[in-house]
Amino acid sequence: MGIYRHNNHEIPVLNTASLPDLIFTILFFFMLVTHIRNANVKVKYQEPAGKELTKMEKKSTINYIYIGKAVDDKGHVISNENKIQLNDELASLPEIKKYFLQEYQSMSSAQRKNMIVNIKADKDVDMGTIIDLKQSLRECNALNIFYAADIDKK
């Protein structure tokens, strides 16, 4: 039979000299891979210019509605008719009303007070479409309505 030796082997010390490089590499990887998801805009719009604009604070309770000409995946205008987009899908006024009624009922009372609808409409959209949309939103108790605009360069 063989002789078993009982040598105590020590675990080597972790080399911490390369740790900052490793952490930086992982951080850089996640910065490249992750991104904040926004809705895929399926309508073409050019925001009107404004003079007195304020920046919105809480963006967690904001619902975006886009109004403009429908475009395809490449960004080419499909039709000259104005379309309304809500959450990655083109929607009609009854569909928007149904969506906001469901949203309103699923929120707590604190969230209901802070619910904001941001309308990003093309500057050439007729006001009748926006008024109809506002009326539908009023019926759903979505009363905080903001309009997106660019700063007037004049």
TrEMBL record:
Gene Ontology molecular function, alphabetical: transmembrane transporter activity
Predominant location category: membrane
Origin superkingdom: Bacteria
Residues passing through the membrane, by range: 17-36
Membrane-topology annotation of the record: Single-pass membrane protein; Single-pass type II membrane protein
Keywords: Cell membrane, Membrane, Protein transport, Transmembrane, Transmembrane helix, Transport
InterPro entries, alphabetized: ExbD
Location(s) in or outside the cell: Cell membrane
UniProt GO cellular component terms: plasma membrane
Single biological process term from Gene Ontology: protein transport
Sequence similarity: Belongs to the ExbD/TolR family.
Descriptive protein name: Biopolymer transporter ExbD
Species: Prevotella bivia DNF00320
